[in-house]
Design goal:
By secondary structure, this protein is mainly α. It has a single domain, classed as Up-down Bundle (A middle domain of Talin 1). It is 76% helix and 1% strand. It has helices at 2-24, 31-59, 63-86, 94-122, 129-152, 163-187, 211-245, 252-274, 278-294, 296-303, 317-334, 341-359; strands at residues 125-126, 338-339. It has a two-stranded antiparallel sheet. The longest helix has 35 residues, at 211-245. The protein is globular and about 50 Å long.
Length: 361
């Protein structure tokens, strides 16, 4: 019954979102209309990730986590590009702020919450150290190449890449992400499958959807993604003015975008952890972080061909400290292949520090 109701509203919401997009495109939105459009945007995001999850269930793990990560990244790239096209103060740092926020949310927020839920259920959360470690190493490398190095390069003043450096970073990111996907899905897929505590019994998985249901969800997923990007473009002035009215720094816009697109991903990760499938939760978290960098940076690099203005990718000192702490804590968590409440709490503490410093730098 619940599944039927969920499938019904997730089929209706993308259509309603398209109607809302057609009715409001290119118009200034008053407060009440803006709130309705915002609800339509949130509903379209939730529907998009639901349908991505249906497709993921059909194709199975570990490919399923990849489908979810790519769907979320498409939404993220669409939001970034539409807001950058709108211009305005702070648009040159929007890509950096959003990608960094996505890394911190996934590698600390979702990662820590998944471990916490898994440890609360079985006292100790078990996962595959080989696959998780490989994913974390890839995320750390991508983050350093694309977000740290621009702060220290000297050819161009400021925390920016030259055109050649940006092209190299984009190609390298795409190649590294593609290599990881090949390893995850073709060469070593067993490293990314759930492992269970000896004697523990995971919840019985639901039957996969039929091919017809998966194709239907794929079509609705595409409709929802178009709606999300279009509605974000319509709401972009309201988002930025709301951040300014709250007295928050402009970098908080990137945090809002990342929180918006990753909230459904968080729910999916928690559901997997509650089913004793912590590995799937970590695949979702690290896969989203990796896709956020490995796909967003090349897309933004390509978009700079027609986008005017500078593109600031280099992190500040506070952000680099948080990133370094995230990598160190992540390595110490992953190596044993098991985690308790403490490890989950440590990651959530780092995430809390990131949110606090984003609002009060």
């Amino acid at each position: 019954m619940i599944r039927t109701l969920t499938a019904h509203w997730t089929a209706v919401v993308p259509i309603l979102a398209v109607v809302a997009l057609a009715a409001t495109w290119g118009r200034s939105l008053p407060g009440v209309v803006g709130a309705v459009v915002g609800l339509a945007l949130v509903g379209a995001v939730l529907a998009a990730v639901y349908h991505a999850e249906v497709v993921a269930h059909r194709v199975g793990e570990p490919l399923g986590a990849l489908v979810l990560a790519v769907a979320v990244t498409v939404i993220e790239v669409g939001l970034i590009v539409t807001l950058m096209i709108s211009g305005g103060e702070g648009s040159e740092t929007l890509a950096r702020d959003t990608v960094f926020a996505a890394v911190m949310i996934t590698c600390n927020g979702i990662f820590g919450l998944s471990l916490l839920v898994g440890a609360l259920r079985r006292r100790v959360a078990f996962f595959n150290a080989e696959g998780t470690g490989a994913a974390l190493a890839t995320v750390a490398t991508l983050a350093t190449l694309c977000l740290v190095l621009p702060t220290f390069t000297t050819t161009k003043p400021g925390p920016e890449f030259t055109s050649g450096q940006l092209a190299f970073a984009g190609v390298c990111s795409l190649a590294l992400y593609g290599l990881f996907v090949m390893v995850q899905t073709v060469r070593h897929p067993d490293d990314f499958l759930p492992v269970e505590e000896a004697g523990a019994q995971a919840d019985e998985p639901a039957a996969p959807p039929t091919t017809r249901e998966a194709l239907r969800s794929l079509g609705l997923l595409l409709v929802a993604l178009v709606s999300v990007v279009g509605l974000a473009k319509t709401l972009s002035p309201s988002i930025e003015s709301g951040i300014a009215s709250a007295g928050l720094p402009h970098s908080a816009v990137g945090v809002v975008i990342a929180l918006l697109v990753l909230l459904p991903e968080t729910l999916a990760a928690v559901r997997a952890a509650r089913r004793d499938q912590v590995q799937i939760s970590l695949n979702l978290a690290l896969g989203s972080a990796m896709a956020s960098i490995g796909l967003t940076i090349p897309s933004i690099a390509l978009a700079t061909i027609w986008l005017k203005g500078p593109l600031v990718l280099g992190l500040g000192a506070t952000q680099m400290v948080l990133l370094a702490l995230t990598v160190v804590v992540g390595v110490l968590t992953v190596v044993p292949g098991r985690a308790t409440l403490l490890q989950g709490g440590v990651h959530l503490a780092v995430f809390s520090a990131f949110v606090f410093l984003a609002a009060s730098p």
